[in-house]
Amino acid sequence: MNHLAHVFLAPDSPEARVGSILGDFTRGVDLSALPASVRQGVRHHRAVDSYTDHHPDVLASKQVFSRQRRRFAGVALDILYDHFLLKHWERFSAVDQDAFIRLIYNELQEKEHLMPDKMARVTRRMVWNDWFGAYQDLENIGYALDRVAGRIRFRNEFTGMITEIRAHQDELEQGFLSFFPDLQEFAGDIE
């Protein structure tokens, strides 16, 4: 899952939500030096990712991508799922979407001291450029995926992944709508 889904599913504390994003930035971080609620968020992140990677609907969704791009299907789905979560927000939350996003942005700014430098730089860009707001538009998902492709250090065919997403959008969206309630239930049961 990507950042929005992780903070959406995380335990209900600012520190755990920071930890739920920190799960992508743990290289070189002494987790034992962090508050217990941040560590809980990291554990939650890892459990959510593992569950997602093995869910039948996610595995089926990966198969719609061409062979040359399938290697990156998981990354594409992670970001695309943030778009679908925003699009179908009312199905999964009684909290106002804009209020939730503002809350998360405020928490990320207030809890920056808990973050390694790389994460702090990313979350600053996330807030300043309103990534979550931008993810409401499928075209912006394409731009985000192309930026990820540009950071891959080896020759790849990930750029332009949005063309395959558009071609299979209905099927991918239905896969998300089938999968996400299962994930939401699983995430609520993580200790």
Output the radius of gyration. Answer: 16 Å
- Uncertain regions spanning at least 5 consecutive residues: none
CA-CA gap between termini: 19 Å
Give me the strand/helix succession. HHHHHHHHHHHH
Strand content: under 5%
The average pLDDT value, as a whole number, equals 93
- How many helices? 12
The share of residues in helices is: 55-70%
Shape: globular
Question: Can you walk through the features of this model?
Answer:
The chain is mainly α. The radius of gyration is 16 Å and the shape is globular. The protein has 12 helices and no strands. The chain has helices spanning 3-9, 14-22, 36-54, 56-62, 73-87, 89-92, 97-110, 117-128, 131-134, 138-151, 161-167, 169-189. Helix 4 runs antiparallel to helix 12 (169-189).
Quick structural overview:
This protein is 70% helix and 0% strand. With 191 residues, the protein is an all-alpha fold. It is globular.
